[in-house]
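Final report, Chapter 2: Outcomes

The project's central promise was a pipeline that accepts a single protein chain and returns its three-dimensional structure in a standardized token representation, suitable for archiving and comparison. That pipeline is now operational. To close this chapter, we reproduce one record exactly as it appears in the project archive, with the input sequence first and the structure output second.
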Amino acid sequence: MMQKSGGNDRFSLWSGALFCCALWGLAPPLIKTGYSIMQIESTSSIILFAGLRFFLAGVMVIAWSSLQEKHFVHPCKKEIRPILVLACFQTFGQYVFYYLGGAHSTGMMMSVLSGLAALLELVFSCWLFRLEKMTPLKFIGCLTGFTGILIMNYTAGGFTFSLNGEGVLVLSQVCAAISAIFIQIFSRQSSPVLLSGWQFAIGGLAMIGASFLIGHPVIHWNGAGALLLLMLAFVSAGAYTLWGVLLSRWPVSSVAVFGCTIGLFGVLFSALFLHEALSLRIALGAIFMSAGILVVNLKTQKLETNAQAG
């Protein structure tokens, strides 16, 4: 319905989605490094750090969009409600849980569980919001991709799971899945870039305010920490804005399945920056994730061909 036909558009989907997932995979080791070099320990400090990141991301997106449009980009009255809904789910809800869970989990687990949103987005889109039909191939594709995530997480001692760590990260992914669907709905009448920038700014400010309400945040600032914060802001500004554009052009299932690769990118970056161990199961997990993406998108290509033939 929204998707474009042609090889160039499929290449744009694949390259754009994988670029977003690579940026998101880079975020967990950067976050864990930030906690370390700025001595961020308390809950209020964690939320303040996250709030600053997303407020800066919002400023980046708004500034870039304003330069492109050659005027200050701001929401009209009808766009205020969608922005507040997105700020609640995509920034405040998702990342309060994400940062709190990340403080009690490894960088790899943060990345691996980030892929859970791909399966949740498909389920919510088809069965809760009814934006598209569930097909066997769609379900098999996302389930195959998520199987890859489970394989990457499995160890000899079983699956690692704690309520204050991985449990909170799961809540983060529920918010992420809901926000992705809202982006597709709201982008039908509003620019996904405008929505992204303003929801980041408002959600970030809400997190900053919440951090001072619940405690006394303490962040030990230094040059490396400030640079790292700017990098994280860019990750959010670039990845979520592009992801929103993709969701405005393609069905949720075609875009969401790429989220399974976040775990792969995150594991690789965590091994590189945090020196967390790699294993053969990572390769096997990557194979499953790739298969899941191919199944969903081969179905998309088949539908395009049939539509053109008709």
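Archive annotation: Residues 191 and 233 are 20 Å apart (CA to CA).
This record, like all others produced under the grant, will remain available to the consortium after the project formally closes.
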